[in-house]
Amino acid sequence: MAVMGKKKRIVTLVTVHAILILLVITALFPIALVVLNSFKPHVAIVANPLSWPESFTPVNYTSAWSYAKFGIGFKNSIILAACTIVIVLFTSTLGGYVLATRRGKVVNLALVYFMIVMTIPIQLFLFPLYYVMSYLKLVGTVVPISFILAARNIPLALFLMRTFFLNVPKELEEAARIDGASELWVYARIALPLEKPAVVTVALFSFVWSWTDFMGPLIYLTKSSKWTISLGLSQFTNTYGVDWALLMAASAIAILPMVILFFFLQKYFVEGSMSSGVKG
């Protein structure tokens, strides 16, 4: 029986690892394909996108950087992402803490409201949002778009933070309240520091949402000097076709910041993702 149990565990372990390896290959293959094709000329990509580059020269990267004005795009994307992250973290941590520590009909109605909001497509609000932005003379500026992106993503971030705050030991909060600590002090000094992985997880999600968003910048940023990275990528597609060599290089440049962030913050991201499923 012991031998059979050991064999069963080995088979299960091998199966799980095989599935995980397959998932990793599936996830990394498109990125690897983009990187490899970024070193090939357009003709070679069209002929065989799976072929190996003849040489690894950065000519496509330098051409793509200058052609799409990625210096300006990076600056605008960083501003947009930073503002979005600040807004999302500020609102979702405060709101998530309240929804996790309070009970009652108002809290239940708020939860239902945010669940409904997540199901409504943003396309329904494009015209009224543009009208308001135009009336306030905010069309063509980067920072106001961060409020729109944040509003779109706050409901999900709020539910994530609520789940994280539900995992905070209630004994610590009760002890602080008994000692006379205010609710804001409990939130800022006890609950929030314990949820550093959660904050990093939500910040990473917010960064990806804002960095890859195309619809918002396309509608509200009318000047090329205010374009973001996502709009810069569209410059390689025109009526006559697609310059695949420059597009692959530009895509690799656009992906790089997200890869770097995940590489350095993966520890907190994994911890936050695991703790988010403990309680609902």
Structure description:
The protein has 280 residues and is an all-alpha fold. Helices cover 76% and strands 1% of the residues. It has a two-stranded antiparallel sheet. Strand 1 and strand 2 form a beta hairpin. Helix 3 packs across helix 13 and helix 4 packs across helix 10. It is globular, with a radius of gyration of 23 Å.
Number of strands: 2
Distinct helical segment count: 13
Task: Characterize the largest beta sheet: strand count, sense, and whether it forms a barrel.
Answer: 2 strands, antiparallel
Strand content: under 5%
Helix content: over 70%
- Shape category: globular
Structural class: mainly alpha
| Termini gap | 39 Å
Itemize the secondary structure elements and their pairings.
Blueprint lengths: L1 H36 L4 H6 L11 H9 L2 H32 L3 H15 L6 H10 L7 H23 L4 H9 L4 H12 L1 H17 L2 H6 L8 H5 L3 E2 L2 E2 L1 H32 L5
Antiparallel strand pairs: 1-2
Helix pairs in contact: 1-13, 3-13, 4-7, 4-10, 5-7, 7-10, 8-9, 10-13
